[in-house]
Structures are given as structure tokens and as C-alpha cells.
UniProtKB/TrEMBL annotation:
<dbReference type="InterPro" id="IPR021842">
    <property type="entry name" value="DUF3435"/>
</dbReference>
<dbReference type="Pfam" id="PF11917">
    <property type="entry name" value="DUF3435"/>
</dbReference>
<protein>
    <submittedName>
        <fullName>Uncharacterized protein</fullName>
    </submittedName>
</protein>
Amino acid sequence: SSTYYKFYMNDFIEADFQEIVFRSEPQRDLIHFMGQLMRRGDTPTRPTDEQMAEINNKKEIGKLRRRKQRVARKLKRRGWTLRSAPKEGRGAALLTRHGRFARQADTLRKTPYDSCLTYAIQEFHASKDGQKIVRQLNSIKPSEYLAPPTIQYK
């Protein structure tokens, strides 16, 4: 690519990499326009407390967490912790069961968590910046023309 830069493309800095390599449509202003979107403090970053309580109170998740705790208590009764349990024999079997229950509970928790968060973010953006984002992703400039960058490359 340095050969391409040196001999074939003098204004490489201003060119879009995808335009050069894949011969796609130029996206010159997309990053500039996206940078103008303000980060809003009220953008959802996690489900609400009510949604979290609903997710955590599911029967299947509680059942798996109780099983995981029972296995951890068995390990403790034998004098082991999760880190110090032997990697062979009975200790390994208990560790495997503990890990399996933990993964299953986490999977059951993450699926509704992610869907709640995704839905909340989509709803937020549809109501706040939806029109502006769609215009920018479709490479339509805003009605008021923004000044081009003042940086000049040699």
C-alpha cells in the first residue's frame, strides 16, 4: 500500500480507504457528520430497575443459581474453594457442574437483558436523532451546508 500511496495516489490522505480498495461509493462526510451528533446523557445504557428485577426474578434463573450455590457449598464442605478445587476426580466434577450452571444462568439472564437494552436504545434513537442519522447514513447532506474542513494537505 505504500507503493500505491507513493506512486498512484498523491492525495491518499483525503481519500476514503474503502473507495480505493473496494471501489465503493465515497463516504467523505459521514464521519464528520456523525461527529456532530451530540452524546445525550439520557441515552439508555442498561435496562431500567423494573426490567432488571423482572429478569432476575425468573424461575429458571433462580433454579440454576440455587443449583450453582449448592455445588459451591459442597466444594466448601470438602475444604475447597472454586480456585483451589483439584483438577481431577470429584473436585473436577463439581467444578464442571458449577461452571455449567453458571453459564446456563448467565445465558438465560443475558438474552432478555440484551433484548430490553436493544429495544430501549432503538426507541430512544427513533425519537431523538432518527431523522438525522438516517439522512447521514444515506449520504444526504443536511439542508444547511456545513463548511468543508479547513485543513489543506500538500
